[in-house]
Amino acid sequence: MTNPSLLILAGDGIGPEVMAEVRKIIDWYGTKRGVAFDVSEDLVGGCAYDKHGTPLHDDTMAKAQEVDAVLLGAVGGPKYDNLDFSIKPERGLLRLRKEMDLYANLRPAQCFDALADFSSLKKDVVAGLDIMIVRELTSGVYFGEPRGIFKEGNERVGINTQRYTESEIERVARSAFELARKRSNKLCSMEKANVMESGVLWREVVQRIGDTEYPDVELSHMYADAGAMQLTRWPKQFDVIVTDNLFGDLLSDLAAMLTGSLGMLPSASLGAPMANGRPKALYEPVHGSAPDIAGQGKANPIACILSFAMALRYSFDMGAEADRVEAAVAKVLADGLRTADLMGPEGGSPITTGQMGDAIVAALDASL
Ligand code: NAD
Ligand code: IPM
Ligand code: MN
Fold first, then answer.
1. What sign does the CA torsion over 263, 266, 267, 268 have?
2. Which of 163, 187, 251, 310 fits 180 for a cystine, CB–CB 3.0-4.6 Å?
3. Residue 125's pLDDT band (boundaries 50, 70, 90)?
4. In a domain, 253, yes or no
5. pLDDT tens, 302-344?
6. Of 27, 101, 130, 253, which one is the catalytic site residue?
7. Using CA positions, which residue lies closest to atom 4 of ligand 2?
């Protein structure tokens, strides 16, 4: 048996800071659980641009296609904001998603008991919350053609195109229905079928897949704007939500605040199964490179650590170990440990990124 392989692309800003804490967990698995991962590291985003003049070198792309799973930190930063669009750090991430064909982006939003008081919403609205947003990740307005900034008469026009084929909708719908079956058998699909043809097709196709393949799953549809409102009004009405690329981007940041902080939200981007039966996969926190706090030891590493837990669950068939990591996170939060993003306006004494990682490792030790 060969060791499971991981490619770490820590990226920019707080990416390397939070990834250093994930390394502690990976090392813990090697020394304490006898699970050795073959870990390689490479560049993505601004740091790749600085070295190679491109946010994702072809060699890195090729490596990503070969490993069992990619772990990504975050990309981007003000230093790169004025670069040509085609070489911006974010293009490196989008290329990974597109070329690995990672069409199903799982973004769970779970409110840990210890943080129920901390959300900007009332405690009873978020306590016990555990929902899953499935965001389509390789199509829609992020990738549709035509796109660009063009000259039209005396002015310029910026164009992006929302485009979905039936098969793109079908495959992400199936991913969401499968997840719903493993959870509460409930799926809500969100689009804007009232104003967009792509939304009309989305709704039709999701309904057909439901009727023909998943009649046991309770399916509902909602306009995405109303969905945003319902997510803040009473999020516990939802279990699995399936939506397109752009709406999923927005709704998952919104969902982050139900859990307390963007620093808490992990994600898994999954594609079709590889020859070994594992899905093509990339795991990354939902947050970005957080330039405002980069280099200060303030970043919350939990989103990235929980992304590694998702890798254990979805790429390595180690669901019980994923539960162990999640329980370790719950334990340190219950013990009152907080990074700065989890402090209320009244303040307190936050711990550093490194201290949070160490505390989670100690909780893992205690779990043995
Ligand atoms: P951001 O997620 O980086 O930051 C938003 C706010 O949340 C900031 O105040 C930040 O300090 C805070 N925050 C985020 N993660 C945190 C963490 N782990 N711990 C504590 N606080 C945290 O979003 P932004 O400021 O809109 O974008 C900054 C850059 O990151 C941009 O270049 C953007 O394109 C990029 N970005 C990258 C990704 C990614 O790599 N997946 C995702 C989103 C944004
Ligand atoms: C995310 C980010 C990305 C997106 C950017 C950085 C390309 O916001 O992963 O949520 O828009 O998908
Ligand atoms: Mn986003």
1. positive
2. 187
3. very high
4. no
5. 999 999 999 999 999 999 999 999 999 999 999 999 999 998 7
6. 253
7. 249
